[in-house]
Write a structure and sequence with these properties.
13 strands, alpha+beta, five-stranded antiparallel beta sheet, 5 helices, eight-stranded mixed beta sheet, globular, 26% helix, BirA Bifunctional Protein, domain 2
Length: 258
């Protein structure tokens, strides 16, 4: 388990913890493992450009700065899977075994969303070893792992469908800042384990707790809706399903219909 010496900053209010963390990166003030936790987030970001709303002091909104080296740009799913497993372990400890990971990295309890992850990256250029003058390759400099998890919120906007919080599941109130500190260290533990344990073990665990695994679901691709059976996620992060044929979908290629 990583030590607790990583910086953990509590912000009273911010538009987006990811924006705040990214500003630190671009200002040259970022360090691997730094975390920024906001009691209130006014313009939080989710996947596909959606907003992530957090009630004042009720939920976790945290962004963690990661130096992904030695991972390469093409290996971004490895970080995504590690972060998802950290959130899964965290949420399962309180909500129980009905917790799953919905591809690519949402946290679900039964059929309801409890949390999500948005990773934003800084890609730079490195001169390749032994390369001729002027020859550069893309290098994955930093990742900002933004996580939102519903903790104490008991009522949600009617426009938000199929959402749930720890309080709704357990009936208990939680110390949100304390839980955010726990989650921070869990994320770092799983990021470190990519190198220590190897990604095959992480992928195996990820697939073991995959939402709707071996179940028929409805997906939408463009204007076409179809039924297919969820099988697994590949090492490259593609969703593998079967119907009359085998299918492999990239992130953003299909939409869940729940």
């Amino acid at each position: 388990m990583p030590s607790s010496n990583y910086a953990f900053t509590v912000l009273d209010s911010v538009d987006s913890t990811n924006n705040y963390a990214m500003a630190r990166v671009h200002a040259g003030l970022a360090k691997h493992g730094d975390a920024f936790f906001a009691l209130a987030q006014t313009g939080g970001k989710g996947q596909r450009g959606k907003n992530w709303h957090t009630g004042n002091g009720q939920n976790i909104a945290i962004s963690i700065i990661i130096e992904p080296k030695p991972l390469q740009v093409a290996e971004q799913f490895k970080l995504s899977a590690a972060a998802a497993l950290a959130c899964y372990e965290f949420f399962t400890a309180f909500a129980g075994e009905e917790t799953t990971i919905k591809w690519p990295n949402d946290i679900y309890w039964r059929d309801r969303k409890a949390g999500g992850i948005l990773i934003e990256n800084v890609i730079g250029q490195n001169r390749s070893a032994g390369a001729v003058a002027g020859k550069y390759s893309n290098a994955w400099k930093y990742a900002v792992v933004g996580i939102g998890i519903n903790i104490n919120q008991a009522q949600f906007d009617e426009s938000l469908k199929n959402v749930v919080s720890l309080k709704q599941i357990t009936g208990n109130e939680f110390d949100v800042t304390s839980l955010a500190r726990q989650l921070h260290l869990l994320v770092l533990k799983y990021v470190h384990s990519i190198k220590e344990l190897g990604f095959n073990k992480i992928l195996e665990t990820y697939n073991a707790c995959l939402f709707k695994k071996n179940s028929l679901v409805k997906l939408k691709r463009g204007n076409i809706e179809f039924e297919t059976m969820i099988r697994s996620v590949t090492a490259e992060g593609r969703l593998y399903t079967t119907d009359i044929i085998d299918n492999f979908f990239d992130f953003g290629e299909v939409e869940w219909l729940l």
